[in-house]
Hints:
By secondary structure, this protein is α+β, with helices and mostly antiparallel strands.
Amino acid sequence: MRSGPTTGAKLRSGLMNDDDLTTILNALTEPVFLVNTDRRITMANVAAEELFGGELTGRNLVHAIRHPDALDSVEEVLHGKTRSEAVISMSGPVRTTYKVSVVRLDNGEDAEGGAVLGLHDISHVLEAEQMRSDFVANVSHELRSPLSALSGGIETLQGAARNDPEAQVRFLGIMEHEAARMNRLIDDLLSLTSVEVNERVRPSGKVNLRAIVERAIAALETQSKASKKPIRLEMPNGECAVLGDEDELTQVFHNLIDNALKYSRDNSEVIVTIGERDQVTGLAGPATTVAVTDQGDGIPVEHIPRITERFYRVDTSRSREKGGTGLGLAIVKHILNRHRGRLLVDSEKDVGSTFTVCLPQDAPAQSP
Ligand SMILES: Nc1ncnc2c1ncn2[C@@H]1O[C@H](COP(=O)(O)OP(=O)(O)OP(=O)(O)O)[C@@H](O)[C@H]1O
Ligand SMILES: [Mg+2]
């Protein structure tokens, strides 16, 4: 915040009164309050009163902050230290972690002084750190299993299978499969990164959804034939234009139809339907929709909110056995975020699932 000429002059000349100070404190979005040497709160801004739910002025500090680390920091400062810091967690509807900065207030020789406390919400920083370290741990874990299968294969080929052509063919097959899995994992990680980098920029090109869906289906034809699960496409006449990135949307439908083929019953049909909806939660206007329906495993309801997380699988061994990296739906989610779209999941265990992509039909935002 920048002080205007009047406030600046008042500050320099020491003429600032309590009203000016309250105005300045209320302009801050983070909770701030002042305590005197009796540990009484002498001033609190609106953000602090909102956080602690009511009038704070006149109350003892321990009635607002009960956390011993924060109270210790205040004691240190009131006993002469210039500043001190503590990290506290507060429970509420959402658990929040704050860094509490306590700074000594010296009001001149005859005034009594005190301390100013500022609370800075660091929950999102801690969350990002946690996500980063979970991500590294997950990637390492995912790479370790194909790598150990590859080293096991090499060892066997050099030893036990050295003179056994049949075993050599078998082990080379396993090694090829594992190497392909590592390749897919790296490709998926790169896709995820490139989508994330562009996530804030909404695509502005007009694309034909019908052609994109047809292309995704064509790419999965071999898989559909091999598993004897035909893919049926139902759509209105016409081209179904939306704003989007052709390659990214192809990847969305590829990942969803691939899942439908992987997790459905043998000899069942996968149905892809292009349609429209007037209203979708989270979207301002009507949407063009593409629904992918399968008859298969289904997803137990408690897993649905988490399936778009990276590496989250309902049945890890089943996904791995099918060569999955657990990144397919995370990529879908990021691409749809970039398109300002939504993914709706409807599923019933042992019946089947419908994944519906909703893309807004509104015009592109005009750049100035
Ligand atoms: N149509 C579906 N039916 C049942 N379960 C599904 C379906 N789609 C996804 N899932 C579940 O959600 C999990 C996450 O899916 P996601 O596509 O992200 O990963 P994956 O299919 O395991 O691997 P990848 O897509 O990288 O090959 C899957 O492991 C599976 O358990
Ligand atoms: Mg998948």
